[in-house]
Model the fold of this input.
Amino acid sequence: MRNQRRFRFQVFLCLGLLASLMVSLGPLASAAVTVEVVATGLNNPRGIDVAPNGDVYVAEAGKGGNGPCFPGPEGGEVCFGATGAVTAIENGDGEQHRVVTGLPSIADQNGAFAIGPSDVDFRGRRALATIGLGANPAVRAKLGAPGREMATVQTFTQRGAMTRLADIAPFEIATNPDGDQPGAAVDTNPNSVYYEGDGAVVADAGGNSLLHVDEDGKVSTLAVFPFVMVKAPAFLGLPPGTKIPMQPVPTSVTRGPDGAYYVGQLTGFPFPTGRARVFRVVPGEDPEVYARGFTHITDLEFGDDGKLYVLQLSTRSLLDPNPGAGRLYRLDGGGVHTEIARGHLEFSLGLAIEANHIYVSDRSISPGGGRVLHIER
Done:
C-alpha cells in the first residue's frame, strides 16, 4: 500500500454561530462579483493575508533547488533549495515584490509540488509565517543549516525582517499528538497559522493536530482530529468491503466571532469526494463538526459580515483523473451555501478577506505559474 501520509501531500500540491449548530453543503446560490488578476509569476503560492496598510502578502512555497536531493514520496527525487519567499502586492492591486527571499523549499526537479513557506497572518505591523515540511523531522538533517528552518513558525515585519518563533519538529518527535490513531506516524507540516496575542495557533497538516505556540515559542496541543475509516479503493487489491483509516489533514485555521477556532480539513488518502469537514474547536473540549460535505478544504476565513467562507481545492476526489476546478463558498445559514467567483478558480490554496475584497492564491501548484486573484463583491 502506498505511504498514505506522504502521498496525500503530493496530490494536495498537484492538483449567527451556535456551539450545537452543524450544517451540510446544501442548496447552492451564486454571487455576482468582479475578478481581477493582481499578481503573476509566483512559485507555488499558498497562504495569503492583508496588512494594515492594505498591501497583500502571499507565501510562496518556492521551487526547490539544486539539492541535496533524496527519494520523493512517489518514486523520483525531490531536491532542496532556498527558493521560498514572501511576496507583497502594494495596495492589493499594485506592484509586486518579494520582501523575504531565501527561504527553504523542497520540490520535484522541475520545481513543481513544492513544500516550503505555507501561510502568513498579520497583527498590526508584525506578521507570522509558517514553513512546512510534510515529512519526518529527521529529514532536516540532510538539508544543512537552511533546512533547519523547515517545520517552523516565524515572525516577520513588512520590511522583511524574519525571526524564528517556534520549532514544531522537536515537539512532533517528543509528543506525536495523533500517535494513538491507526496509521499515524511521526510527521509534521505546519500549514496554516493564526496570530493570537503574542503567540500563534497552528494547523499541523502532518501531525493531524491544532497547536498553540506561546510568546516564548513553547508548543502545546489544542486538539487532535479523528481518523475516519473509509472504503478502500479497488486498485489497492484488498478484499471487497475492506476499510482503511483516512487521516483528517487539517489545512486551515481561523477564529470565529464566537471565540472558537474553526479548522478545515483536506482529508487524506483515498481522498473521497464530499468528506471534508469544518471543525469547531474550543480549547479543552473535543473538536465538533460544524459543517460537512466539502471536498479538500484548503483555507477558510470569516468575513466582516460574520459569515464563514470556505475554499476547496477541487470538486471531486484527487484520485479522479479530472478532479475539477476549485470552489469558494459563503455559508449563509439555513443550509444555503453561496458560491463566489464560479468558474474563475484553478487549484486555489489561500484565502484572505478585507471588507468587500477577497484575495485568493490561485494556480498554486507550479513554479512561475501562480497568481493572486482579487474578487470584489
The two ends are 46 Å apart (CA to CA). Helices lie at 4-14, 144-147, 168-175. Residues 1-24 have pLDDT under 50 and may be disordered. Residues 4-376 form a domain with the Neuraminidase fold (CATH 2.120.10.30).
